[in-house]
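Appendix C reproduces, verbatim, an entry submitted by the partner laboratory led by Prof. M.T., so that reviewers can inspect both the input and the predicted structure.
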Amino acid sequence: EESLHTRRESFREQKAAIARAAARHVQDGDTIFLDGGTTTAALARCLTGRRDIHVVTNNLLAVGMLAAAELRVTLIGGDVRPSSMSTLGPIAQLALSRVSFDKAFLGADGVVAGRGLCEASAEQAFLKECIAAQAAQVLVLVTSNKLERASQQHWTPLARRWTLLTDAQADPALLARFAQHEEVTVECAQREA
């Protein structure tokens, strides 16, 4: 698993484009969940000018900027995972069972068509499953280098409708694998000129 510093610095333009595209999915009045990770932290930056949304998150990278923007923020507690600056574990799972979301924005170490999201730990994978169960809509935000990447051994199956939101550099053949599954909507974010 890459260090947090490496992840923050890699694919910055792609993550920014994905974040801008994801922000267009957020409507006034929405309650959304922002998962841990640097791409979802980029989405948090895009939301700081908004007012009428409620953000629930386990992403410690996002909390400070959202709270400083005076957005309504609910931090899911639990054990801190320093390598991602996010929370997880039984306390986070319990908290998630008590809330629901209009939209959940998930990150992943990899995403495989027909299989789901792969993660470094069973706790991370199960927490994503808990998040998805509480959301009306699920959007997975990943840079194109994570498509069809099974780099970790723990899995979150996505047996429901969901949107894959990736960058414009994605290989069309890989995107076609996802598009073959009727539960997946594929969206590519364009970089700003």
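The chain has a mean pLDDT of 93. Additional entries are available on request from the coordinating office.
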